[in-house]
Amino acid sequence: MSDVLGAEGAVSPAGRRNALLVASELVTNALRHAGGVVGFAVGVETAPAGAAAGGTDGRPGGGTCVRIDVEDAVGSRPRTDPAALRDPYRLSGRGWALVQLLAATGDVLPLPGGGKRVSVTVPL
């Protein structure tokens, strides 16, 4: 992941932190709740037009983003509690809420042999 971001060149510190945090949360969720990681891919691309968050150029899409794909062995969708990020005493359960907060786009797709692929884009 760091190699891909480093090859991109001028990535903002916030974009780098957000991308690493999202990747860490997705992998951790796959390990803790979904039978482990069975696939992982990362790449840099142009944010799709109409994305929920823009790139570093401030436009609502078209900026540079990193796509993170994590595949796991369980087909159920990630769950979140809307209050997860507002409770300062909560010990866990913030991962998917953080991913949703930081990602410009996100999809959860079933895999043909079972399991799922969680694909997100994070603005850089």
Describe the structure.
The protein is α+β, with helices and mostly antiparallel strands and 124 residues long. It is built from three helices and four strands, in the order ααββαββ. The protein has a four-stranded antiparallel beta sheet, covered by helices on one side. α2 runs antiparallel to α3. It is globular, with a radius of gyration of 14 Å.
Q: Strand share of the residues?
A: 25-35%
Structural class: alpha+beta
Q: What kind of sheet is the major sheet?
A: 4 strands, antiparallel
Order of helices and strands: HHEEHEE
Shape: globular
Number of helices: 3
Strand arrangement within the widest β-sheet reads: 1-2-4-3
Radius of gyration: 14 Å
N→C terminal distance: 13 Å
Number of strands: 4
Average the pLDDT over all residues and give the rounded result. 85
Low-confidence stretches: 52-60
As an assembly, this protein is single chain
